[in-house]
């Protein structure tokens, strides 16, 4: 089933709008979700790890099938289904504070995320063309960061009422966003396989094989899949463990409170502001390098900063210096994401674009599922060692970027050959 392309809104503005709202709603849920899990639901450290593992397994199992659906049926339909499922997951965990309900919520939101993963980038690339999409991805990152700031502030305010309130608002808002997109989101340049020609399992297998072939034959795609895998091996543990280290420090009292819920809202805001400022500065100062057709040098530099930040965070024993190292890592990752996304999309054709993007995301999920539990077990003996290993895992990534060389420009080569013949 595909949705009719009845939307009349401008594609780029729609892309900015739904990503801004999406990031706002995600911040509503995630700013205080860890505090909610521990304080209201009473999850143990093992249960917290199982929550993350359940989410990543859901993403891993459904990433490829949902990406293929976006390629064969409708990017728009895939995105809308994703938002509705994510919203349902957020509502479930907010309204039913129990471990099993939260596990079920992770499955819902994980499946929903896979419907959106790759489909939104593939949709906007189809609508405006691969040659114009690089600056759009960079601007979208800034819109997303702005939405995250607003969502973080709102989550802190609503969390003063009760910790489940921001998640409840977020879940309802996510479902509403999906319903609004049914009416306003255009889809003019995607042509799904006609119903009469659909041989579902045959087309699924063919599209999947095409994605595998692209990943194997193109050095950029192959390397980005490997980089995504390595990043996942490191990120699951770091994302779960950094809060544990920060909570070991004594927070200063501000406005009469040193409550971790207050400080985690403040820390999230500071990190997001830094990422937004860095994105704006880099885009203004070095737009040509950001939108470079082969930005391997810039991505290698940002990956190096991420390594320094993670290892620095592991070793530093001062609260604010440790946070500065963590923010350095987050800023580098934030800046790299749209540059890498544009680079990947330029190396893909429309017919397999969503599928290959999903493969990159799936590689990250595999890494997180494989790397998280061992590093979590190591953290039981030494938190610092686990965080240090998490940083060391990332060290091959700058080299992987630097070893990539630009592919010959076929059009330029053809012109040169023609000129030589004349």
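-> sequence recovered:
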């Amino acid at each position: 089933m595909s949705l009719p392309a009845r939307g009349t809104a401008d594609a780029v503005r729609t892309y900015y709008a739904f990503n801004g709202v999406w990031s706002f709603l995600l911040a509503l849920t995630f700013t205080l979700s860890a505090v909610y899990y521990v304080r209201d639901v009473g999850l143990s450290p093992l249960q917290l790890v199982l929550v993350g593992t359940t989410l990543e397994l859901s993403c891993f199992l459904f990433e490829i099938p949902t990406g293929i659906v976006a390629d064969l049926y409708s990017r728009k339909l895939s995105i809308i289904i994703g938002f509705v499922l994510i919203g349902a997951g957020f509502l479930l965990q907010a309204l039913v504070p129990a471990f099993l309900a939260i596990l079920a919520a992770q499955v819902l939101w994980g499946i929903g995320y896979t419907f959106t993963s790759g489909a939104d980038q593939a949709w906007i690339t189809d609508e405006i063309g691969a040659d114009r999409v690089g600056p759009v991805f960079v601007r979208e990152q800034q819109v997303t960061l702005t939405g995250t700031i607003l969502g973080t502030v709102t989550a802190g305010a609503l969390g003063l009422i009760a910790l489940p309130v921001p998640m409840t608002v977020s879940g309802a808002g996510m479902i509403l966003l999906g319903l609004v997109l049914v009416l306003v989101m255009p889809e003019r340049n995607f042509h799904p396989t006609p119903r009469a020609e659909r041989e579902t399992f045959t087309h699924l297998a063919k599209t999947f094989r095409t994605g595998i072939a692209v990943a194997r034959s193109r050095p950029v795609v192959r390397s980005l899949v490997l980089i995504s895998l390595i990043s996942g091996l490191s990120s699951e543990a770091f994302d779960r463990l950094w809060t544990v280290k920060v909570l070991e420090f004594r927070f200063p009292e501000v406005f009469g409170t040193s409550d971790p819920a207050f400080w985690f809202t403040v820390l999230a805001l500071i990190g997001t502001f830094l990422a937004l400022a860095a994105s704006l500065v880099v885009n203004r100062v070095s737009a040509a390098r950001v939108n470079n057709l082969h930005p391997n040098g810039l991505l290698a530099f940002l990956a190096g900063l991420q390594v320094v930040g993670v290892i620095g965070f592991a070793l530093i024993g001062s609260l604010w210096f440790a946070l500065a190292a963590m923010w350095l890592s987050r800023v580098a990752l934030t800046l790299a994401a749209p540059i890498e996304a544009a680079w990947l999309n330029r190396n893909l054709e429309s017919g397999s674009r969503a599928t290959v993007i999903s493969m990159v995301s799936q590689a990250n999920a595999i890494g997180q599922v494989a790397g998280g539990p061992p590093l979590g077990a190591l953290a039981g003996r030494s938190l610092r060692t686990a965080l240090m290993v998490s940083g060391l895992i990332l060290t091959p990534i700058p080299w992987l970027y630097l070893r990539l060389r630009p592919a010959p420009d076929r059009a330029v080569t053809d012109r040169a050959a023609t000129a030589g013949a004349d």
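DSSP finds 18 helices and no strands in the chain.
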